[in-house]
Amino acid sequence: MILGCIADDFTGAGDIAGLIAAEGMRTSLFTSVDDIGSRSCEAGVVALKTRSLPVEVAVQQSLAALELLLQAGCSQIVFKYCSTFDSTPRGNIGPVAEALAARLGVETAIVCPSFPANGRTVYQGNLFVGDVPLAESGMRDHPLTPMTDSDLRRWLAPQTSLAVAHIPLQRVRSAGLADDLAMARGLVVVDAVSDQDLRIIARAVADAPLVTGGSAIGMGLPANFRARGQIGDTPVPALSRHGPTLILSGSCSVASNAQVAAYRASRPAIAVDVERLLHGYPVLEEVDEFLVRNAADSPLAYSTAPPELSRTFIEANGGNRAALAVEELLAELATRAAARGIAKFVVAGGETSGGVVEALQPGPLQVGRMIAPGVPLLANETQTFALKSGNFGSENFLHEAVAAMEPTT
Ligand SMILES: Nc1ncnc2c1ncn2[C@@H]1O[C@H](COP(=O)(O)OP(=O)(O)O)[C@@H](O)[C@H]1O
Ligand SMILES: O=C(O)[C@@H](O)C(=O)COP(=O)(O)O
Protein backbone atom coordinates (compact mmCIF):
# COMPACT_ATOMS: atom_id res chain seq x y z
CA MET A 1 0.00 0.00 0.00
CA ILE A 2 1.56 3.31 -1.03
CA LEU A 3 -1.37 5.73 -0.96
CA GLY A 4 -3.50 5.87 2.20
CA CYS A 5 -6.74 7.81 2.54
CA ILE A 6 -8.53 8.65 5.76
CA ALA A 7 -12.15 9.51 4.98
CA ASP A 8 -14.34 11.19 7.60
CA ASP A 9 -17.45 9.33 6.48
CA PHE A 10 -18.39 6.17 4.63
CA THR A 11 -19.90 7.63 1.47
CA GLY A 12 -16.87 9.89 1.21
CA ALA A 13 -14.63 6.83 1.50
CA GLY A 14 -16.45 5.12 -1.37
CA ASP A 15 -16.31 8.35 -3.34
CA ILE A 16 -12.53 8.75 -3.22
CA ALA A 17 -11.92 5.00 -3.49
CA GLY A 18 -14.00 4.93 -6.69
CA LEU A 19 -12.14 7.85 -8.25
CA ILE A 20 -8.70 6.39 -7.43
CA ALA A 21 -9.71 2.92 -8.67
CA ALA A 22 -11.02 4.46 -11.91
CA GLU A 23 -7.47 5.77 -12.50
CA GLY A 24 -6.15 2.20 -12.51
CA MET A 25 -4.79 1.97 -8.96
CA ARG A 26 -5.62 -1.29 -7.14
CA THR A 27 -7.81 0.01 -4.34
CA SER A 28 -9.46 -1.40 -1.20
CA LEU A 29 -11.93 0.23 1.13
CA PHE A 30 -11.46 -0.68 4.79
CA THR A 31 -14.69 -0.37 6.73
CA SER A 32 -12.84 -0.73 10.02
CA VAL A 33 -9.34 0.30 11.07
CA ASP A 34 -8.76 -3.31 12.13
CA ASP A 35 -8.92 -4.30 8.45
CA ILE A 36 -6.08 -2.01 7.35
CA GLY A 37 -3.38 -4.13 5.76
CA SER A 38 -5.56 -7.24 5.64
CA ARG A 39 -5.85 -7.07 1.84
CA SER A 40 -3.12 -6.44 -0.70
CA CYS A 41 -3.67 -3.16 -2.55
CA GLU A 42 -1.86 -0.09 -3.85
CA ALA A 43 -4.34 2.42 -2.39
CA GLY A 44 -6.15 1.83 0.89
CA VAL A 45 -9.08 3.98 1.94
CA VAL A 46 -10.20 3.85 5.58
CA ALA A 47 -13.82 4.75 6.23
CA LEU A 48 -14.18 6.51 9.55
CA LYS A 49 -17.36 8.11 10.86
CA THR A 50 -15.67 11.10 12.44
CA ARG A 51 -17.33 14.00 10.68
CA SER A 52 -19.77 14.73 13.49
CA LEU A 53 -18.00 13.17 16.48
CA PRO A 54 -16.53 15.29 19.29
CA VAL A 55 -13.26 16.87 18.10
CA GLU A 56 -10.95 14.89 20.42
CA VAL A 57 -12.47 11.57 19.36
CA ALA A 58 -12.24 12.44 15.67
CA VAL A 59 -8.58 13.41 16.08
CA GLN A 60 -7.73 10.30 18.06
CA GLN A 61 -9.44 7.94 15.56
CA SER A 62 -7.79 9.69 12.59
CA LEU A 63 -4.35 9.42 14.19
CA ALA A 64 -4.92 5.73 14.91
CA ALA A 65 -5.83 5.14 11.25
CA LEU A 66 -2.74 7.12 10.19
CA GLU A 67 -0.40 4.90 12.24
CA LEU A 68 -1.78 1.76 10.61
CA LEU A 69 -1.55 3.23 7.10
CA LEU A 70 2.06 4.23 7.73
CA GLN A 71 2.84 0.75 9.06
CA ALA A 72 1.28 -0.70 5.90
CA GLY A 73 3.79 1.29 3.81
CA CYS A 74 1.92 4.42 2.68
CA SER A 75 4.15 7.28 1.57
CA GLN A 76 1.31 9.72 0.98
CA ILE A 77 -1.81 10.31 3.08
CA VAL A 78 -5.01 11.99 1.93
CA PHE A 79 -7.43 13.31 4.52
CA LYS A 80 -10.76 13.17 2.64
CA TYR A 81 -13.65 15.33 3.81
CA CYS A 82 -16.84 16.43 2.17
CA SER A 83 -16.87 18.48 -1.02
CA THR A 84 -19.29 20.76 0.81
CA PHE A 85 -16.70 21.09 3.62
CA ASP A 86 -19.13 19.74 6.25
CA SER A 87 -17.84 20.98 9.61
CA THR A 88 -18.66 23.40 12.40
CA PRO A 89 -16.67 26.31 13.84
CA ARG A 90 -15.05 23.76 16.24
CA GLY A 91 -14.11 21.16 13.64
CA ASN A 92 -13.53 18.53 12.65
CA ILE A 93 -11.66 19.36 9.44
CA GLY A 94 -9.20 21.84 10.99
CA PRO A 95 -8.26 19.84 14.09
CA VAL A 96 -7.87 16.55 12.21
CA ALA A 97 -5.77 18.13 9.43
CA GLU A 98 -3.61 19.83 12.05
CA ALA A 99 -3.07 16.62 14.03
CA LEU A 100 -2.19 14.60 10.92
CA ALA A 101 0.24 17.31 9.79
CA ALA A 102 1.93 17.35 13.20
CA ARG A 103 2.34 13.56 13.24
CA LEU A 104 3.73 13.58 9.69
CA GLY A 105 6.05 16.47 10.55
CA VAL A 106 4.77 18.77 7.82
CA GLU A 107 4.05 22.47 8.10
CA THR A 108 1.82 22.75 5.06
CA ALA A 109 -1.13 20.90 3.57
CA ILE A 110 -3.48 21.90 0.81
CA VAL A 111 -7.22 22.24 1.44
CA CYS A 112 -9.09 21.45 -1.74
CA PRO A 113 -12.74 20.30 -1.54
CA SER A 114 -13.47 21.10 -5.21
CA PHE A 115 -15.38 18.34 -7.07
CA PRO A 116 -16.41 19.84 -10.43
CA ALA A 117 -18.18 16.68 -11.71
CA ASN A 118 -20.66 17.20 -8.86
CA GLY A 119 -20.82 20.97 -9.18
CA ARG A 120 -18.54 21.86 -6.26
CA THR A 121 -15.93 24.45 -7.21
CA VAL A 122 -13.59 26.69 -5.23
CA TYR A 123 -12.92 30.20 -6.51
CA GLN A 124 -11.42 33.16 -4.62
CA GLY A 125 -11.38 30.93 -1.55
CA ASN A 126 -15.17 30.48 -1.69
CA LEU A 127 -16.96 27.19 -2.22
CA PHE A 128 -19.80 27.01 -4.73
CA VAL A 129 -22.45 24.32 -5.14
CA GLY A 130 -23.61 24.55 -8.73
CA ASP A 131 -24.20 28.22 -9.38
CA VAL A 132 -24.77 29.32 -5.78
CA PRO A 133 -22.36 29.97 -2.91
CA LEU A 134 -22.29 27.07 -0.40
CA ALA A 135 -24.15 29.09 2.25
CA GLU A 136 -27.06 29.64 -0.15
CA SER A 137 -27.33 25.94 -1.05
CA GLY A 138 -29.36 23.27 0.78
CA MET A 139 -26.25 22.78 2.96
CA ARG A 140 -27.18 25.83 5.03
CA ASP A 141 -29.92 23.62 6.59
CA HIS A 142 -27.89 20.40 6.97
CA PRO A 143 -29.15 18.56 10.08
CA LEU A 144 -25.68 18.12 11.63
CA THR A 145 -23.30 20.56 9.94
CA PRO A 146 -25.23 23.59 8.66
CA MET A 147 -22.84 25.49 6.38
CA THR A 148 -23.58 29.17 6.81
CA ASP A 149 -20.42 30.73 5.33
CA SER A 150 -19.06 30.01 1.85
CA ASP A 151 -15.62 31.49 2.49
CA LEU A 152 -13.43 28.49 3.31
CA ARG A 153 -10.70 30.64 4.83
CA ARG A 154 -13.15 32.26 7.23
CA TRP A 155 -14.88 28.96 8.02
CA LEU A 156 -11.62 27.08 8.63
CA ALA A 157 -9.72 29.73 10.65
CA PRO A 158 -11.53 29.21 13.99
CA GLN A 159 -11.06 25.42 13.62
CA THR A 160 -7.26 25.47 13.67
CA SER A 161 -4.25 27.10 15.29
CA LEU A 162 -2.38 26.82 11.97
CA ALA A 163 -2.26 29.74 9.57
CA VAL A 164 -4.88 29.60 6.82
CA ALA A 165 -3.58 30.69 3.42
CA HIS A 166 -5.02 30.83 -0.09
CA ILE A 167 -3.72 30.17 -3.59
CA PRO A 168 -5.96 31.76 -6.25
CA LEU A 169 -6.93 30.12 -9.53
CA GLN A 170 -4.62 32.36 -11.58
CA ARG A 171 -1.61 30.94 -9.71
CA VAL A 172 -2.88 27.35 -10.10
CA ARG A 173 -3.03 27.91 -13.84
CA SER A 174 0.38 29.58 -14.00
CA ALA A 175 3.85 28.28 -13.32
CA GLY A 176 3.54 29.95 -9.90
CA LEU A 177 1.75 27.11 -8.11
CA ALA A 178 4.83 25.13 -7.10
CA ASP A 179 6.53 28.28 -5.76
CA ASP A 180 3.44 29.32 -3.85
CA LEU A 181 3.14 25.88 -2.30
CA ALA A 182 6.82 25.83 -1.36
CA MET A 183 6.48 29.21 0.37
CA ALA A 184 3.11 28.61 2.04
CA ARG A 185 2.73 27.57 5.68
CA GLY A 186 -0.30 26.10 7.38
CA LEU A 187 -3.51 25.01 5.69
CA VAL A 188 -3.67 26.34 2.16
CA VAL A 189 -7.03 26.70 0.46
CA VAL A 190 -6.40 26.15 -3.25
CA ASP A 191 -8.87 27.30 -5.91
CA ALA A 192 -9.97 24.72 -8.51
CA VAL A 193 -12.96 24.88 -10.85
CA SER A 194 -12.18 22.04 -13.28
CA ASP A 195 -10.74 18.53 -13.30
CA GLN A 196 -7.80 19.97 -15.19
CA ASP A 197 -7.08 22.35 -12.27
CA LEU A 198 -7.27 19.42 -9.86
CA ARG A 199 -4.82 17.36 -11.92
CA ILE A 200 -2.37 20.29 -11.95
CA ILE A 201 -2.66 20.60 -8.18
CA ALA A 202 -2.28 16.83 -7.72
CA ARG A 203 0.93 16.92 -9.75
CA ALA A 204 2.24 19.78 -7.63
CA VAL A 205 1.70 17.81 -4.40
CA ALA A 206 3.27 14.58 -5.70
CA ASP A 207 5.83 14.60 -2.90
CA ALA A 208 3.63 15.98 -0.13
CA PRO A 209 3.24 13.50 2.74
CA LEU A 210 -0.22 14.99 3.47
CA VAL A 211 -2.95 16.16 1.11
CA THR A 212 -6.39 17.24 2.33
CA GLY A 213 -9.47 17.67 0.20
CA GLY A 214 -12.58 16.26 -1.37
CA SER A 215 -12.48 13.06 -3.37
CA ALA A 216 -11.61 14.69 -6.68
CA ILE A 217 -8.12 15.65 -5.58
CA GLY A 218 -7.52 11.87 -5.42
CA MET A 219 -8.12 11.57 -9.17
CA GLY A 220 -4.74 13.04 -10.11
CA LEU A 221 -2.63 11.21 -7.50
CA PRO A 222 -2.31 7.76 -9.17
CA ALA A 223 -0.55 9.41 -12.14
CA ASN A 224 2.23 10.53 -9.78
CA PHE A 225 2.84 6.96 -8.60
CA ARG A 226 2.60 5.68 -12.19
CA ALA A 227 5.14 8.24 -13.37
CA ARG A 228 7.54 6.84 -10.76
CA GLY A 229 6.88 3.28 -11.95
CA GLN A 230 5.25 2.30 -8.64
CA ILE A 231 1.89 1.09 -10.00
CA GLY A 232 0.46 -0.57 -13.09
CA ASP A 233 -3.01 -0.12 -14.57
CA THR A 234 -5.66 -2.32 -12.89
CA PRO A 235 -9.17 -2.48 -14.41
CA VAL A 236 -12.15 -2.06 -12.02
CA PRO A 237 -14.16 -5.22 -11.24
CA ALA A 238 -17.92 -5.46 -12.12
CA LEU A 239 -19.21 -6.41 -8.62
CA SER A 240 -22.88 -6.92 -9.58
CA ARG A 241 -24.89 -9.87 -8.23
CA HIS A 242 -28.41 -11.32 -8.60
CA GLY A 243 -31.22 -10.73 -6.10
CA PRO A 244 -33.36 -7.97 -4.63
CA THR A 245 -31.95 -4.79 -3.09
CA LEU A 246 -32.86 -2.93 0.07
CA ILE A 247 -32.74 0.87 -0.18
CA LEU A 248 -32.37 3.00 2.95
CA SER A 249 -32.34 6.79 2.85
CA GLY A 250 -31.55 8.89 5.93
CA SER A 251 -30.25 11.80 3.90
CA CYS A 252 -32.27 15.03 3.99
CA SER A 253 -30.42 16.68 1.11
CA VAL A 254 -32.22 18.35 -1.76
CA ALA A 255 -31.01 15.60 -4.14
CA SER A 256 -32.10 12.73 -1.87
CA ASN A 257 -35.56 14.29 -1.47
CA ALA A 258 -35.97 14.31 -5.25
CA GLN A 259 -34.62 10.76 -5.60
CA VAL A 260 -36.92 9.40 -2.90
CA ALA A 261 -39.91 11.11 -4.52
CA ALA A 262 -39.00 9.61 -7.91
CA TYR A 263 -38.55 6.08 -6.54
CA ARG A 264 -41.68 6.23 -4.37
CA ALA A 265 -43.72 7.12 -7.45
CA SER A 266 -43.25 3.67 -9.01
CA ARG A 267 -41.77 1.30 -6.39
CA PRO A 268 -42.62 0.20 -2.82
CA ALA A 269 -41.51 2.79 -0.29
CA ILE A 270 -42.25 3.54 3.35
CA ALA A 271 -41.53 6.69 5.35
CA VAL A 272 -40.08 6.49 8.85
CA ASP A 273 -42.15 8.71 11.11
CA VAL A 274 -39.42 10.26 13.25
CA GLU A 275 -41.83 11.92 15.67
CA ARG A 276 -43.52 8.59 16.44
CA LEU A 277 -40.11 6.92 16.69
CA LEU A 278 -39.00 9.40 19.35
CA HIS A 279 -42.24 8.88 21.24
CA GLY A 280 -41.59 5.17 21.56
CA TYR A 281 -44.03 3.76 18.99
CA PRO A 282 -43.01 0.44 17.34
CA VAL A 283 -41.82 2.16 14.17
CA LEU A 284 -39.03 -0.37 13.63
CA GLU A 285 -41.49 -3.29 13.57
CA GLU A 286 -43.92 -1.48 11.27
CA VAL A 287 -41.28 -0.50 8.74
CA ASP A 288 -39.59 -3.91 8.88
CA GLU A 289 -42.91 -5.66 8.28
CA PHE A 290 -43.38 -3.54 5.13
CA LEU A 291 -39.86 -4.38 3.95
CA VAL A 292 -40.44 -8.11 4.49
CA ARG A 293 -43.71 -7.94 2.54
CA ASN A 294 -42.08 -6.11 -0.38
CA ALA A 295 -38.61 -7.66 -0.19
CA ALA A 296 -38.65 -9.09 -3.72
CA ASP A 297 -39.43 -5.68 -5.20
CA SER A 298 -36.35 -3.78 -3.90
CA PRO A 299 -38.22 -1.60 -1.37
CA LEU A 300 -37.16 1.75 0.06
CA ALA A 301 -37.39 2.88 3.70
CA TYR A 302 -36.68 6.56 4.22
CA SER A 303 -36.61 9.25 6.88
CA THR A 304 -35.68 11.77 4.20
CA ALA A 305 -37.45 15.08 4.81
CA PRO A 306 -36.93 18.54 3.32
CA PRO A 307 -33.68 20.03 4.71
CA GLU A 308 -35.34 22.94 6.50
CA LEU A 309 -37.93 20.63 8.13
CA SER A 310 -35.38 18.10 9.42
CA ARG A 311 -33.21 20.92 10.78
CA THR A 312 -36.14 22.51 12.63
CA PHE A 313 -37.14 19.08 13.88
CA ILE A 314 -33.65 18.31 15.19
CA GLU A 315 -33.46 21.66 16.97
CA ALA A 316 -36.83 21.04 18.60
CA ASN A 317 -35.96 17.48 19.62
CA GLY A 318 -32.76 17.61 21.60
CA GLY A 319 -30.14 18.12 18.91
CA ASN A 320 -28.54 14.97 17.59
CA ARG A 321 -30.87 12.68 19.53
CA ALA A 322 -33.34 12.56 16.64
CA ALA A 323 -30.57 12.04 14.09
CA LEU A 324 -29.03 9.20 16.08
CA ALA A 325 -32.38 7.50 16.62
CA VAL A 326 -32.96 7.51 12.87
CA GLU A 327 -29.46 6.20 12.16
CA GLU A 328 -29.94 3.35 14.63
CA LEU A 329 -33.31 2.45 13.16
CA LEU A 330 -32.04 2.33 9.58
CA ALA A 331 -28.98 0.31 10.64
CA GLU A 332 -31.21 -2.19 12.44
CA LEU A 333 -33.41 -2.54 9.35
CA ALA A 334 -30.28 -3.38 7.34
CA THR A 335 -29.17 -5.94 9.94
CA ARG A 336 -32.55 -7.65 9.87
CA ALA A 337 -32.65 -7.70 6.07
CA ALA A 338 -29.13 -9.17 5.91
CA ALA A 339 -30.19 -11.88 8.34
CA ARG A 340 -33.03 -12.73 5.90
CA GLY A 341 -30.53 -13.07 3.06
CA ILE A 342 -30.73 -9.66 1.38
CA ALA A 343 -27.28 -9.14 -0.13
CA LYS A 344 -27.56 -5.78 -1.91
CA PHE A 345 -27.89 -2.43 -0.16
CA VAL A 346 -28.27 1.08 -1.52
CA VAL A 347 -27.88 3.66 1.25
CA ALA A 348 -28.34 7.42 0.90
CA GLY A 349 -26.53 9.66 3.35
CA GLY A 350 -23.02 9.68 4.78
CA GLU A 351 -23.87 9.26 8.46
CA THR A 352 -26.63 6.86 7.53
CA SER A 353 -24.24 4.75 5.45
CA GLY A 354 -21.77 4.75 8.33
CA GLY A 355 -24.42 3.40 10.66
CA VAL A 356 -25.50 0.69 8.21
CA VAL A 357 -21.98 -0.46 7.35
CA GLU A 358 -20.84 -0.45 10.97
CA ALA A 359 -23.85 -2.61 11.80
CA LEU A 360 -23.24 -5.08 8.94
CA GLN A 361 -19.44 -5.18 9.39
CA PRO A 362 -18.65 -6.29 5.85
CA GLY A 363 -14.86 -6.05 6.32
CA PRO A 364 -12.63 -4.89 3.45
CA LEU A 365 -14.52 -4.04 0.27
CA GLN A 366 -13.48 -4.21 -3.34
CA VAL A 367 -14.13 -1.05 -5.33
CA GLY A 368 -16.01 -1.31 -8.62
CA ARG A 369 -17.33 0.97 -11.31
CA MET A 370 -19.13 4.26 -10.66
CA ILE A 371 -22.95 4.29 -10.85
CA ALA A 372 -22.89 8.10 -10.69
CA PRO A 373 -19.98 10.51 -10.13
CA GLY A 374 -18.66 9.72 -6.64
CA VAL A 375 -20.77 6.56 -6.09
CA PRO A 376 -19.01 3.29 -6.94
CA LEU A 377 -20.25 -0.24 -6.38
CA LEU A 378 -18.52 -1.82 -3.38
CA ALA A 379 -18.55 -5.51 -2.52
CA ASN A 380 -17.15 -8.32 -0.44
CA GLU A 381 -17.71 -12.02 -1.20
CA THR A 382 -21.35 -11.98 -0.12
CA GLN A 383 -22.71 -8.43 -0.21
CA THR A 384 -22.80 -5.47 -2.59
CA PHE A 385 -23.23 -1.84 -1.59
CA ALA A 386 -23.84 1.53 -3.18
CA LEU A 387 -23.30 4.26 -0.58
CA LYS A 388 -24.59 7.55 -1.90
CA SER A 389 -23.44 10.88 -0.57
CA GLY A 390 -26.42 13.06 0.24
CA ASN A 391 -26.26 15.43 -2.66
CA PHE A 392 -24.97 13.07 -5.34
CA GLY A 393 -26.84 11.40 -8.17
CA SER A 394 -29.54 12.39 -10.62
CA GLU A 395 -33.25 12.25 -9.82
CA ASN A 396 -33.42 8.64 -11.03
CA PHE A 397 -30.40 7.54 -9.02
CA LEU A 398 -32.25 4.95 -6.90
CA HIS A 399 -33.69 3.20 -9.97
CA GLU A 400 -30.27 3.37 -11.63
CA ALA A 401 -28.52 1.93 -8.60
CA VAL A 402 -30.89 -1.05 -8.38
CA ALA A 403 -30.36 -1.72 -12.09
CA ALA A 404 -26.56 -1.29 -11.86
CA MET A 405 -26.30 -3.89 -9.09
CA GLU A 406 -27.98 -6.55 -11.23
CA PRO A 407 -25.75 -8.41 -13.73
CA THR A 408 -26.61 -7.55 -17.33
CA THR A 409 -26.51 -11.20 -18.48
N1 LIG B 1 -36.58 13.21 9.27
C1 LIG B 1 -35.46 13.46 9.95
N2 LIG B 1 -35.45 14.32 10.99
C2 LIG B 1 -34.31 14.57 11.65
N3 LIG B 1 -33.11 14.02 11.36
C3 LIG B 1 -33.07 13.16 10.35
C4 LIG B 1 -34.24 12.85 9.60
N4 LIG B 1 -33.89 11.95 8.66
C5 LIG B 1 -32.58 11.73 8.81
N5 LIG B 1 -32.08 12.45 9.82
C6 LIG B 1 -30.67 12.48 10.25
O1 LIG B 1 -30.00 13.45 9.46
C7 LIG B 1 -28.65 13.04 9.25
C8 LIG B 1 -28.39 13.06 7.75
O2 LIG B 1 -27.02 12.92 7.54
P1 LIG B 1 -26.43 11.98 6.43
O3 LIG B 1 -26.92 10.59 6.56
O4 LIG B 1 -24.95 12.19 6.48
O5 LIG B 1 -27.02 12.57 5.09
P2 LIG B 1 -26.29 13.52 4.04
O6 LIG B 1 -25.38 12.64 3.28
O7 LIG B 1 -27.38 14.09 3.22
O8 LIG B 1 -25.51 14.54 4.83
C9 LIG B 1 -28.51 11.65 9.82
O9 LIG B 1 -27.91 11.72 11.09
C10 LIG B 1 -29.96 11.19 9.93
O10 LIG B 1 -30.16 10.23 10.93
O1 LIG C 1 -17.22 14.83 -0.90
C1 LIG C 1 -18.42 14.57 -0.99
O2 LIG C 1 -19.28 15.39 -1.34
C2 LIG C 1 -18.87 13.21 -0.54
O3 LIG C 1 -17.88 12.25 -0.72
C3 LIG C 1 -19.26 13.26 0.88
O4 LIG C 1 -18.44 13.12 1.76
C4 LIG C 1 -20.65 13.62 1.11
O5 LIG C 1 -21.06 13.41 2.44
P1 LIG C 1 -22.60 13.19 2.75
O6 LIG C 1 -23.35 14.25 1.98
O7 LIG C 1 -22.76 13.33 4.22
O8 LIG C 1 -22.94 11.83 2.26
Automatic annotation (TrEMBL):
Keywords: ATP-binding, Carbohydrate metabolism, Kinase, Nucleotide-binding, Transferase. Residues 246-398 form the Four-carbon acid sugar kinase nucleotide binding domain. GO terms for molecular function: ATP binding; kinase activity. Its EC number is 2.7.1.217. It holds the Pfam family NBD_C. The keyword Kinase applies. Residues 3-220 form the Four-carbon acid sugar kinase N-terminal domain. It catalyses: 3-dehydro-L-erythronate + ATP = 3-dehydro-4-O-phospho-L-erythronate + ADP + H(+); 3-dehydro-D-erythronate + ATP = 3-dehydro-4-O-phospho-D-erythronate + ADP + H(+). InterPro entries: 4-carb_acid_sugar_kinase_N, 4-carb_acid_sugar_kinase_N_sf, NBD_C, NBD_C_sf, OtnK. Catalyzes the ATP-dependent phosphorylation of 3-oxo-tetronate to 3-oxo-tetronate 4-phosphate. Belongs to the four-carbon acid sugar kinase family. This is 3-oxo-tetronate kinase. The lineage of its organism: Bacteria, Pseudomonadati, Pseudomonadota, Alphaproteobacteria, Sphingomonadales.
